[in-house]
Amino acid sequence: MKVLKFGGTSVGSADRMRDVANLIQNGDRKIVVLSAMSGTTNKLVQIAETLYQNKNEDANVLIDALHDNYKQVVESLYTTPEKKKQANELIAHHFDNIRAYTQDLFTIHEERAILAQGELLSTALFQFFLEEQGIASVLLPALNFMKIDENEEPDASYIARNIALELEKYPETNLFITQGYICRNAFGEIDNLKRGGSDYSASLIGAAVAATEIQIWTDIDGMHNNDPRIVKNTHPIAELSFDEAAELAYFGAKILHPSSVLPAKQKNIPVRLLNTMQPEAKGTIIKSQTIGGGIKAVAAKEGITAIKIKSGRMLLAYGFLRSVFEVFERYKTPIDMITTSEVAVSLTIDNDKFLNEIVAELKEFGQVEVDKEQTIICVVGDFIAEKSGASLKVFEALQDVPMRMISYGGSTNNISLLINTTDKVTALTKLNEGIF
Ligand code: ADP
Ligand code: ASP
Ligand code: MG
Q1: 10, 182, 195, 204: residue to mutate for ligand 2 pocket, most atoms within 8 A of CB
Q2: Model-level pTM greater than 0.85?
Q3: What domains lie within the chain, and their CATH numbers?
Q4: Is the CB of residue 142 less than 8 Å from the CB of residue 182?
Q5: Predicted local distance difference test score (pLDDT) of residue 289
């Protein structure tokens, strides 16, 4: 079994959906995971924001406009009047559902139900298209097997058990379609895997069915060595290890959801990044063993907050760091980077929801300084022997960029630097010129 995920742009129009239908037609048994059509989730987010502000009339205008877009998709995707009618009824049903949420109190539950509509729409429309083309396939509802627990972590054994139950119903079927991004939470309510989460769905499903390969089809020919949205002259990387890909995804390479590499790594399933617009391009293969050392890529993650705790109690003492970390643990706030000196420790977080509470508790240890709007620049590669002087190249390239923290040696494939977000574009550009 293979798992193929197609992102928003890849299913973003009737033409694109036709291309996807062509790409998935060979004998292999496969599960095809689809995102919402591009732009849809952003629109649904906007509708939800408008409803939170009680601007229900504005929300209805947005809903009608999105409904109109889908009517056009229906018009151009299908040829027979029967399928057009069936598809128009389907989208009307989904948009009536969304409109119903403008009537009552609007809470996070309604918001999540609205956000789920994008993937429900794209998969149902695609399934109708396959039916019209006479291509045998089954639509599997992700809400029947995709689940997160009370800590918002995927429940891997539940997912494996329930997807197996779904697949058992169709022993003769070779092609399955399902929704990315959406899931149920610990209370059985509709929820999601956060923005960009369809990649995560694909790897969780891949791990659950012990797939031979997970393919992430998107709008670019693989993982590039730098952020193509910011820097010119980037190029695709042929091979990455799971750890290298995980670092890049976590530290800002938008092509992969931050958590999406782990399930594949745990089951040792290769992940291939491919371009729907250029299917013959080699893309990137992510697997356990790869060729080549040295620096492979850089990525940047914005929205970072740095916290420095200066304390005399740290000097020659043990147990100090544990007490610091326990504060973050109490507020379920992950730490990304950490550097220490004998009298101070600096660390970074990207979720500052409990920043005030955390700082208040840390003040009991000493002086606390907070810097917001920081960016982590992550340089990824194979630095085992440091033969190539990778760190030297990095620091030379960045000689004019002030650095707040430097972290090296935590693993053999990462150098992380903390800079002001205002220096991000300069840093990525200088690194591109200096190290590749
Ligand atoms: P999809 O909708 O298919 O999930 P995304 O927009 O989420 O696609 O991810 C693909 C985009 O990621 C690319 O168009 C590119 O602009 C962006 N991107 C950011 N960093 C990288 C990188 N290092 N390599 C490739 N793409 C990247
Ligand atoms: N549709 C969702 C989003 O836009 C999930 C995804 O595309 O991966 O975030
Ligand atoms: Mg994405």
Answers
A1: 195
A2: yes
A3: 2-218 (3.40.1160.10), 296-435 (3.30.2130.10)
A4: yes
A5: 84
